[in-house]
Amino acid sequence: MTTSRRASRQGAPVVCTPRLEGRGARGAYWNSLSSVGVPVKASDRQLLFELRKALLHLHKTLLDWERAAYERVHGRASAAELLKVIVEDPQFAWLRPISELIVRIDSTVDTEEPDAIIDVDALLTRAREVVSPGESGSEQAQRYLAALQEHPDAVFAHRAVTSLLKTHPPRETAH
Length: 175
What we know:
Blueprint: E1 2-6, E2 15-19, H1 22-33, E3 38-39, H2 42-74, H3 79-88, H4 96-110, E4 117-118, H5 120-130, H6 139-150, H7 152-166
Helix pairs in contact: 2-4, 2-7, 4-5, 6-7
């Protein structure tokens, strides 16, 4: 794995993103997304970029809420301690599905191959799953619902993601 560099649109510092090396590794990654895919269109890239941005805001909002809950019990944590806790503590595990989706979208948007095959619908479906806290009863769903009930900023961030997803409804599949 190598690291690519790109500057943000606002002239912010350079951001490093992981990049898979070689066609074999990249091909295996793309195949893991879905067995059904099409070359990425510019409109799909833009949609995924907007979804990524909304998910990042949601993730940060939820992380801030969970951090406050953690610090109420354990006291204030330094940035290094917090990073370790986020990665290792089960209290933060429910945020990982959102983190993993953001990474998958990053990999899709950052690809330099114009003919890369991906299933955008699979990414949108996964986004719908991670922001639908209701029925599963999982720990992730329970914490997500608690955040929405207790933290108004989480409601606004959730709304931004769901509004974007509503503009791109799931496609009907032929049987």
